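Comment thread on ticket #2218

A.B. wrote:
> Attaching the input chain for the structure job we discussed in standup.
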Amino acid sequence: MKRITTIIFLLAASLAMLQAQTKVMSHRGFYAHPGSFENTLTSLKGAQDLAVEAIELDVHLTTDDSLVILHGPKIAGADYPDVQKLDFKTVRSCTLPNGDKVPTLREFFTQAKKTPGLTLFLELKAHATPERETQLAEKSLALCDEMNMYDQMVFISFSEHLCDEIVRLKKGALVMPISSKKTFSTQELLDRGFAGVSYNMSAVMNKTHLLDEAHQAGLQTVLWPVNSYDLADFAIKHNVTYVSSDQPDAMQKLMSAIRELQWKQTKKLIAFDLDGTLTQHKQPLSEANRAVLDTLATRYEIIMAGAGNCKRIYAQMGNYPITIVGNYGMEESRIIDGEFKIVREEKAVVDKKFMDKKCMELRKKYGYTSYKGDPLEYHESGMVTFGLLGTKPDPADKLAFDPDKIKRRAMYPEVKEIFKDYSVFIGGTTSFDITPKQYNKYDAVMRYAAEKGYTKDQILFVGDDFADGGNDSQIRIYGMDYIRIDDYTRLPEKLSFLF
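C.D. wrote:
> Ran it. Output below, let me know if you need it in another format.
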């Protein structure tokens, strides 16, 4: 990475081909530093600290049907040649070169849930018989069901039998075959229900049309191993979804530099989330972040795209003069002749009987039958807020309830299924926001962009919660370029490349 400055200038000719954010996958976690080792909890924590988009890990079944994480088949530092021929007690007795024990898949999932935005590419290792592979598939899926992991999961394998079994056993699971030699046509991938394909570089170096066709069909692609500028450039030019790297820290810096240069040249509209991005939850806009908006407004058009209503957002921002798309797109305000004006209000009819019944069923199931205020808040727009502590909880209880959103993320798949005819978001600090289906931040921003003549690739979204269920999630799901803000006080630093 010493050539990074020179490389940036070399990329200018290919930037026009950069149509999607090629993401970095940390191969076997991030272990390329002292004290770590591949496929350990230490390497997983390293990848989480690095904030990569994805990691790859390998899972085997022991003779007594425990799911363990190891590239294998040999356990490094031990005399056992094949982990699949050992019981769990024996596997656990081994110490890896960095001092860690071989982790279980349950332990990996427990740690991974602390960063819900991290995607896990779970490589199901080939086993001795098809029957044994089916058992591996069944047990892996059972643990995903138990721990509610599907929002973070992609299943991959060199064994096509294993891939086909996951597709058969779990409708909607994301499955990708891995190949270092064989190639797949786009039609075969679609016909077999696969979400994409993971290729070794050698398999597609002279068949790049396969990557291009997969991208055009909306399939995901992974390229491995990618540890150099040349391969990263190749991946970007062919819209590869993920590059799997043993040097994710260096690759992350390279990809970030490429994106930042491209975005500064092509973006015209920047849309912001408010709480957690520009401010602390429901707190005033700081002078530092106000200055960021002032600076960006000299070069780009900037707007707010919020979950709250326009009047509330405007007041929280200290009457900052900006166009606001509120209530997930149900409302819009603009500054006209120096005055705040609501220019669009859309309302929907809510089936209150259905909402009351289903939310009370959820309260009883999850133990939230004690609450203060009303059980639901019905907004004039037709949006519904389902606060687990009610509409008037004590402020201290509200802040302490679910700061990492783990409680609500555990409920989210069921809430989403019950209200499948609506858009459902994990909102605020204790609640779910439920809106008519067409209202979400992606559609809200795209509607505004269409009116103003902007294309999708000219838009950049700045937010804090892109995980499934987060109120910025559709931005990620539908492929709009975005920047994640983990700490609103670091916003000036994170966006300085745009100045």
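A.B. wrote:
> Thanks. Noting for the ticket: The chain has three domains: 4-261, 267-346+439-498, 352-380+384-436.
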